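Lecture 7 notes: from sequence to structure.
We start with the chain below.
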Amino acid sequence: MKKFIACFYMLLCVFSSNLSAQNKYNWKEAGTGKYKYRYVTNDPEKVRFYTLENGLQVMLHVNKKEPRVIYKMVVRTGSNNDPADHTGLAHYLEHLLFKGTDKLGTLNWGKEKPYLDQIQELYENYNHTSNEVERKAIYRRIDSVSGIASKYAIANEYTNVMKEMGSQGTNAHTEFDATVYDENIPAGALDKLLKVQSERFRNPIFRLFHTELEAVYEEKNKGLDGDDFRMFETISSILYPNSNYGQQTTIGTIEHLKNPSLTAIKKYYDTYYVPNNMGMILSGDFDADEVIQKIDQYFSYMRPGKFPEFRQATEPDFTSSVVKEIISPTPEVGVLAFRVPFKGPSSKDELLINLLSQLCFNGKAGLFDININKPQKMQMAAIELLGTYQKYTTLLGVAVPKTGQSADQALEILWQEIKKVKNGDFDEQLLTAIKNNMELEVAMSKRNNMATVMTLERGFITDQCQTWNNEAAFLEVMNSVTKQDIVDYANRVFANNYAIIYKRKGKQASVAKIVKPKITPITINKTERSAYAKGLDAVSVLATKPAWVNFDKAISHSKINNARLLYTINKENGFFELQYRFDMGSWNSKLLPLAVDYLSLLGTDKYSSEEISKEFYQLACEYSIRVGDRSTAIVITGIQKNFDKATALLEHLLANCKPTEESLKKLKEKLKKERIDAKTSKDALMKGLVSYATYGAKNPFNEAGRLQPDLLDASTLVKLLHQLSNYQHFITYYGPESLQNITQKIKKSHHMPATFRPVPALAVNFQRRIQKENEVYAADFDMLQTQIQWLRNIPGYQPSLQPTVNLYNSYFGDGMGSIVFQQLRESKALAYSTSASFQTPVYKSDPYLMKAFIGCQADKMEEAISGMDSLLNDLPHSEDGIKNARMSLLKSFETQRFTEEKLLDFYLLLENKGITTDYRQQIYERLKTLTYSDLKAFANKYIAHKKYAYCILGSKEVVESDNLKKYGDVKKLTLEALFGY
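Predicted structure tokens for the same chain:
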């Protein structure tokens, strides 16, 4: 689903004018006063396109469903424009645009500036010096002067201002062709947002540079630890030998990261960050006529400039396939990487390649899904769109071999399916089903503003929003595509224009890492505010009244036989979601997750497994069964008009699925391969460490591993599936059907016994351990970074504690404005990512969990642990920090609006805690009076100077170090202890 949605966002804005229904979707011009805009007739989103006198393009999309506004500033420049001798520069700049200006983020600009000028000059010397002794001396000087300069800086003041404003989406990202800055604010704060954003781009100051540089180092090391990064780099370098898409990476080379130039960064900013190269997108609750005047008022100071446009070089034709491999300890993979020429992002090719991708693989009923993944001819086959560039797009065929199968054999199977597409050897009904499912996704994407925003973003980056008229015509254009169109296009795509990349399993060659420089922690000034920030208090912010939920009115309760029904109506579209919810899960039956896994391989006396998948896809419906520790949900979603057929099909499958020896054999092979692969996964290893630390030597993670695949019995698994609906459960429905009608439909389709079976008792009741002493749980993995998690279970759930928990999390460990982020990343430059939170239990009988995390270079581990320990034990005091955290939470509550779809989940979440009303109102009121003293008392009672389990994942050198003993009793866990096999 995520794969399709990502492709869908890229599609909507990219069809050329000759594809649209011109008689229906035409460009028109309108305006109020001097502010003229363009729009498209019959555009359901009613987007306005303005161009200010200085060239700044503004796209306004009004949608008042919730009182919030999404903001994006898109700059049409990215790593493609990095100078060849300063790769990574655009990404550096993105980080530095959070550091403020000569007004924002400074206590005294006049005193700060001379030191920043010195730092810039020192970096130029550093950049041009090769002698290591001299470089170290220069760096010591940089460190020293940076320490003095930091006394006048206010780290993260921009972030704090946005947090106080109530932003929930402060972020940015850099890609090849663009750099994008994001916020998501309460509608009442829009005027203040525009004022701050105009200041942000007026005169950005690149302060606190050497600590931010370390954060980028950490980001680079994190990438070097990941196979995805190395595969992407390898594929791109082969397919794009003549252009920056393949010859430069966004994050830059190690050599360039070690030798940054502030002068080059400033020159880049001045060249590309000009209004005629920038686009602002606003989507949400506002008046467009008023807002465009304010945008002009705040941004008219910007002056247009001349900038060199990046033009992608023409790549050489492949005379034969190119083969390359990388070595990794993780499972073997084979990839077919196709470089596909297309006529530009406004061409029909853009639509065709997405339809072709869906035809091959959509996770449900594509050719790979049905002909490879269902019969398990390999462990996994998929197709992915890697990226769409100016002259080309990249299509990947991914083949993950099963046990005893080589990557070459898996790729050959992939080729056989590709040949079927080229020969037209597929049912035209599949193409029709793809169109139906895409139509459903179009409707579903309109439930919030993000789909429109991302479409506008992509359109501006590719300079194709002049074809917005074709976004409105998307479905008509899609439905005009024929099977022959797809076949013809497949023969163009799947030609001699590809590379083969193997990820071979083995010991990875030593990877150069960026060694930790000596950095003196800088001053944070967390209690100070600039004169500019204080002045923002005078900017009026329109209050938004919170909307609390009356569950008695919002949710209808009924019964179907012995099962209770919770109902909410969908008034927006024809989408439905039906769930059968059981208070039983893997702790009640260890076989239940395996039985559900087995179901995907089974057919019935009427349908094969493949036919069932095809039938659901034809209906534009799907089902899933989610098994948790103590709960299970059978979920059916899709178009309401096909509700009867979809529910009947699922009931038929559950009641009549038939075991076969062949399907059991496939299940066993699949499980064995997954278990082998898990032991080479960092994520799985950390999950095992956390489970061991939380529950002890016998825990849910390794208990699941102790089940022997070879001992599985098909009849036992199928019997569990046949009997599932006989156990006590309740039903939830969200959709367009009336309560009376849907009650009758469910009663007719859903088979339930006259008397439910009671839910089986817990087979194993895992109890969370209460730490009495400090403990260290360590496992080794060949990696550059070291990951550390702190865990502490605290019993005694109290709903009245929730306001304090919320404020503590927001203040202490949540986001870029938090204490943890400021101290460990901004001040000490110890990590790229770090966080901490006091987590509320899902069930009222469970304990709270205090959890902290940091990912750092191995040589920073001890300093990182010491730094986090210090913060946990002594909560720093910042009144402005408390104020910003409080305001952020209050504004979040004020602007939060539950859709009916999410309302049921919220209600059931509270029900698990024994709460029957919307207790957000009590939290909201209590937040207004909480003080630092309250947080300090809370931290002292539950967090400070308490016993923790430290989970440490790192290289063998780290794990075997005697230094770990200083943190507690050390247990170096083997793979068998972690996984249970």
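Points to note: The first strand starts at residue 27 and ends at 32. The longest helix spans residues 109-127.
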